[in-house]
Amino acid sequence: MPDLRSSVLEYVTKPNYHPVKPAVIAKKLGLSRESSQELRKIIKGLVKSGELAFGPSHLVYPAASSPSQRKKAAADTAKAAAKESFRTALEEGQHAKAATPSGKPKSGGPPQEKVAKTTAHAKGSKRTDHFTGTFRRAAGGFGFVRPEGTQRAEGRDADIFIPADKCGDAANGDTVSVRLESKRGRMGKQEGRIIDVVERATNRFVGVYFEQAGMGMVQIDGKIFGNAIFVGDPGAKGVRTDDKVVIEMVRFPSHVHDGEGVVVEVLGPRGEPGVDTMSIIYEFNLPGDFDDDVLENSRKQAELFDESIPRGRHDLTASTIITIDPIDARDFDDAISLERMDNGHWMLGVHIADVSHFVQPKSPLDREAYDRATSVYLPDRVIPMLPEIISNNLASLQPNKVRYALTAKMEMTEEGILVDTEVFKSAIKSARRFTYEEVDEYLANRNAWKKKLSAEVHALLGRMHELAMMLRARRFKRGALELSMPEMKIDLDADGRVTGAHLAQNTESHQIIEEFMLTANEAVAQKLEDAGLIFLRRVHGSPDPRKMKVLTEFVRELGYEVDNLEDRFELQKLLDSVKGDPREHAINYATLRSMQRATYSPEEDGHYALASDCYCHFTSPIRRYPDLTVHRLVDLLNRGKKPDQRLEQLMADGDHCSEREQRAAEAERELKKVKLLLYMSDKIGTELDGVITGVENFGLFIQGSEIPAEGFVHISSLTDDYYRYDRAGHIIAGHRNGNSYRLGDTVRVAVAAVDVDTRTLDFRLVARKGKAPQGRIKRPTKSRGRETGKSAKESGGAKKKIRPGKNERRTKRGL
């Protein structure tokens, strides 16, 4: 379409052009949906030909602009940083729910922070009243928009508050155009009004069908829309009351009119096994079956593979190599070998499935793998990045089969210091497949396993444990952090019904593999950097110093004696010291909220949590596309070929892979919530022990001990006393009888109410089990000579009186 190509170039090269995404260009040019899809292909082609360029967040720039100019322009669209309370989590609607409908906090709510003046441009640049960004709607109907081009360090500080009556018909995730207002909104943020929806995140939603006054209605899952959506003919698609359905939105709801949609698919009765999973798949627009050309490409690769070892590939089939994976793993993408050299050094071999051999650039397999960018691991199924014939067979490092690998051989001193790295294509044959549980049993009683294993494999496991623990100690010595946030695992029976849940344990067997994978990722990244290549790094930027100061105050309020948690070694000491403490979850969660999110980017920002200056993902190409790009770069480097590298394209690739990773994580998290709530729904009145993980002015968040479900106890249900909220001490205290509930207290609760559709769980307090410890953690020996913060008692933290039964509006955080 030469006319469309010319129109794009003419539009982007105008003197007053402001960088926007392809969707905005399509809207400005008045294109149809079909033409918009064609436009994206044209823009990508223009980027490849050098006539246009991609910048941060996939913004389109004229090719004449330099990377530094693009970076500055992107930064100029961001909001100036605004000071915000650490515990403020407005996007989840927690404080918002404690506010009045007008959007102004009630007198009994948390104190507002004063914030610096915010404009649509960074400090020192000219103000603009319009910008484009992504809308996030909160449960209260209001929302926030983060301007496109916002830098990672700015995060929530750049968000613009949009009142409920100024959101128009925008839905969560939509790309919107915003006009700034002169006044400030909630929590002192700059206020704006949505004037146009540039691009819908989705037109399809999942909900529960019911009938009202003879009309078909669907209540959308979660808190996306406050009111049910009218769907016309009750008999359409044979839908029945309480069926889970997918609807296509015909008219999005706003504050002036209701929404309207049409049922396009019936998933099945609510609560039936598998229906919840399909609901989440549709809700998050997760990929479905592979296209025919992708499957055909996979079959062709299977026909070509015969386990022979071609020239140019190192034959390591005689080496003692093993895999260690979860008991339910279906694909094995990493294997380990380890020897002691004559000079006393270690020779660690990390052998990674050579996915690049099967997935050629620009092939149907490559196209689909890039689009998916990651495998999605749901409790009852896996949505793979690659077809099973590749992921579970050809590329999988199955035991006793010749498999192609990309091997990183790393020589280390006796103390575990890396001295040399070599990366090359290889062929291996795994001698044995271990589960984590088996390795833990081996470590507990090595002699008992001598009869079960060959002498070579038995000795290999012992060497692996010795080196891994050495590497682990060295990593923490340099300042690496370890947040104790165990992953929740859902227990299912043969029919897919939930039988319970448990928290995964990070045992020494897990740590062995973790240390070797981290070492290989870092070594390969350093090799690429030394060669002067740009590549997709795994980036975890340093936290905002202001957020770390707020975290420091929060920890002091809990009674811990800390100086300044901006010091990674003091933070490391704190995290290590709270292990096993009832307040461990709250402190780890608070620390996590203070950190930036890890992303993929060619920027050289390092990895803060790992205390690494140069890091990438190399070890999981079966399930992560960025790893595949690194494999291809290593191969080109080894063959002496110069890759065609463009920073703009890598930035766009990093944004795409990061977004897909975040989508997968959110889908997995939501499905776990739904499944656990379904399990709890028939257990009203059941009692269980729990720990108070959050204290707010409107009630208590409590996580069960036997079943790791987090529920809420509203303050209005505490009828035995007149309670007040002590923000400084994170306590709700009784006025007459002296009863109090503090962060970390152990309690007995009963299941009071379960709402699967809104994903909330309410508990009823039955009894107190024990008080949280009040001991302090001393500061590190090397003090800067400054006084520590006062305790909550010494500082006389402000106390707020709250009468049970008041009309506090709040968000039940659910699980």
Overall description:
The structure is a single chain. The protein has 815 residues and is of the alpha+beta class. It is built from 17 helices and 34 strands. The strands form ten sheets. Strands 5-4-3-6-7 form a five-stranded antiparallel β-sheet. A hairpin with an 8-residue loop joins strand 11 and strand 12 (260-269). Residues 70-127 and 775-815 have low confidence and may be disordered.
Please name the defining characteristics of this protein:
5-stranded antiparallel sheet, alpha+beta, 815 residues, 17 helices, disordered C terminus, single chain
Query: What share of the residues lie within helices?
Result: 25-40%
How is the biggest beta sheet arranged? 5 strands, antiparallel
Count of beta strands: 34
Beta-strand level of the residues, as a percent range?
25-35%
- Overall geometry comes to globular
Derived from helix and strand composition plus strand pairing, the structural class reads alpha+beta
Spatial separation of the terminal alpha carbons: 51 Å
Low-confidence stretches: 70-127, 775-815
Mean pLDDT, to the nearest integer, reads 83
In spatial order, strands of the major sheet run 5-4-3-6-7
Compute the CA-based radius of gyration. 28 Å
Count the DSSP helices: 17
